[in-house]
Structure formats: structure tokens, C-alpha cells
Amino acid sequence: MHEPEFNATGVRIERWPRSLTKAGQVLIEDGRLALLTSYGRVIDSAPVQAVQAGKAWFTGGGSTVATVNGTRYRLTMDRPGRGADGRPLDGTALAVRFLDVVHRAGGSRG
Q: Percent of the chain beyond pLDDT 70?
């Protein structure tokens, strides 16, 4: 079994103007991005090539904006996570890693 390219838990997922979950999961695996609730229910999912992702200029370092299937989501990664090599990452480093994985997989900058 292989590891996902990106996996972050405890992510606040918002679709303006409301919060969808305060402890969601962002998963990139087998070329697909999935936004999940804390219970594992899929909020939205799309091939990574169809996703636009970028830095949220109006928020802190751990926030990104992703457009999935035409819907804009703000993803706030407050909780520390782990990189692909197992090293701990803070929220800002986790957000940067998310953007790197999306862009390397063919997603566009948003």
C-alpha cells in the first residue's frame, strides 16, 4: 500500500461565508484531491489537474484557497502535521507543502 501524496487532518474547511468543518481532512491520493469532514464524509473531490490553489493573501500563513469544481474553499491548517519524510511541519509549512503537491501534480495557481 502506498502513502498519499498529501494528507492533513484537523483542517478548517470554509466555503464563504460559513465553516463546513473545523477538523476536516485534505487528502491528495492517486491524482485526486478530496476534502473530507472529520467523520470522513466527502465535501468535494476532483482530479488535482482541475484544482486551482494559491496562498490566501488576506489570512495567516497556514491558510490557502482552493477552487474545486468551481467552488472556492479556504483551507486553514492550524495544527502541526508531518511531511512525506515524517518530519513535523507547522501549519505554514504544511500549507506550502499542499501548494507544492497541487502544482507539481498539474493543478493551477489560483
A: 91
- Report helix, strand or coil for 27: strand
Topology given in CATH for the domain delimited by 6-109: PH-domain like (2.30.29)
Query: CA-to-CA distance for 82 and 51, rounded, in angstroms?
Result: 23
Confidence of residue 58 (pLDDT cuts 50, 70, 90): confident
User: How do beta strands 108-109 and 42-47 pair?
Assistant: unpaired
| Cis status, amide bond into 80, omega within 30 of 0 | no
What are 66-101's pLDDT values in tens digits? 999 999 999 999 776 666 667 777 888 899 999 999
- Number of residues that this document lists for the chain: 110
Distance CA 44, CA 81 (A): 22
Domain borders along the chain are 6-109
